[in-house]
Amino acid sequence: MMSMLAMLLGSGMAMDLVAGDCSCKYQGSKLPESLYKNYPASDPGKYENHSSIRSYGTMCAAWDQVPSTPWVSYCPSGSNWSDPTLNWCQIPWCYVDESCESKVASSVFTGSSTAFYSYATCGNSPDCYSNGPDGAYGAGTTGCPYDPHGESTNMVYKSECACLYQGSALPADLYNNYPTSDPGKYNTSAQIELYGTACAAWDQSPDTPWYSYCPKGADWCSYDYNWCQAPWCYVNSSCSTKVASSVFKGSQTAFYSYNTCLSTPDCYTNSGKDNRKDLPKACPFDSSDNSWSTAKNCSSGWTSSSPSPPPSNSTSTTPPTTGKSSTDTAGHRALTGGLAVVASMAVFASTW
């Protein structure tokens, strides 16, 4: 829960490892419509027709590889991600406040207050896009080119448990025909095609299957809700840290992993009251574990559940609980779990 480095620094607030407010500016929400319709000032609404724009930069993720986002055309699938001119495509980031010491100026919404983003906020990732001490694209910057696991894959995830849909969207066949018990159950979720495609705290993001179980204002350090702020992605059955999923039950998209995302602990499985002794010692998860921005820092450890409204699709008057049953009231994803080649160097050399 608290890394040794954070303890030595006396960290009591999320993202104290980087000065200023470096938390993700839109964690747990979407970009306001007024932002992408009225900016950038030079070309209002330039990106409003990108289907993924509402989610762009809201939480930590490698956004520039996500389909239908402003800069995905500069990050074509199958590229050599070790190439310094493309390596930045795989680095997670999110929008941050102007006070953040690790901020990088952004031009996507120029003229608005959403003017900066940070890589360091997301797993203490290096800035391999901006000029480094030895030249362009982070040349000479510690950690560049980005390859967090030292596996020469240059990915945020571990190669043994690769994110199945990194750089792509979920196939329509998947969310239209599954789960088999209720085909298309989640196909009306506005961002269903992005769900679980890359390392991100998907369950805290609006318009996704389990967002209703992660209500705004919940106690993110409680057993009931801590899993909401943990990043994960869908993986294949050979992944040693896989957790069974019921969202698309009956399909090949049957497992996900927290661990593949910078060794995030699984604080969902075994979070039911009878199994908590089996939770990883790193739980509850927060930014001190791997510097991945979270909605709340849990420096005091686990807390009790906070009063929260029931999910919109539930008749319960109390927050859902977690456990080891696929019929658990929360349900969540688990069956067994308690649950950004440059076309114009002149333009790109400015900022994103």
What features would you describe in this structure?
The chain is mostly loops and 352 residues long. It has a domain at 21-155. The chain has 5 helices and 6 strands; from the N terminus they run ααβββαβββαα. It has a 3-stranded antiparallel sheet, with no helix packed on it. Strands 4-6-5 form a 3-stranded antiparallel sheet, with no helix packed on it. The two termini are 33 Å apart. The relative contact order is 0.16. Residues 1-18 and 306-352 have low confidence and may be disordered.
Short description:
The protein is low in regular secondary structure and 352 residues long. Helices cover 7% and strands 4% of the residues. The chain contains five helices and six strands; from the N terminus they run H-H-E-E-E-H-E-E-E-H-H.
Write the topology of this structure.
Layout lengths: L3 H5 L24 H6 L55 E2 L8 E2 L10 E3 L53 H6 L55 E3 L7 E2 L10 E3 L29 H4 L54 H4 L4
Antiparallel strand pairs: 1-3, 2-3, 4-6, 5-6
Radius of gyration: 19 Å
Beta-strand content: under 5%
Separation of the first and last Cα atoms:
33 Å
Read across the widest sheet, the strand sequence of neighbours is: 1-3-2
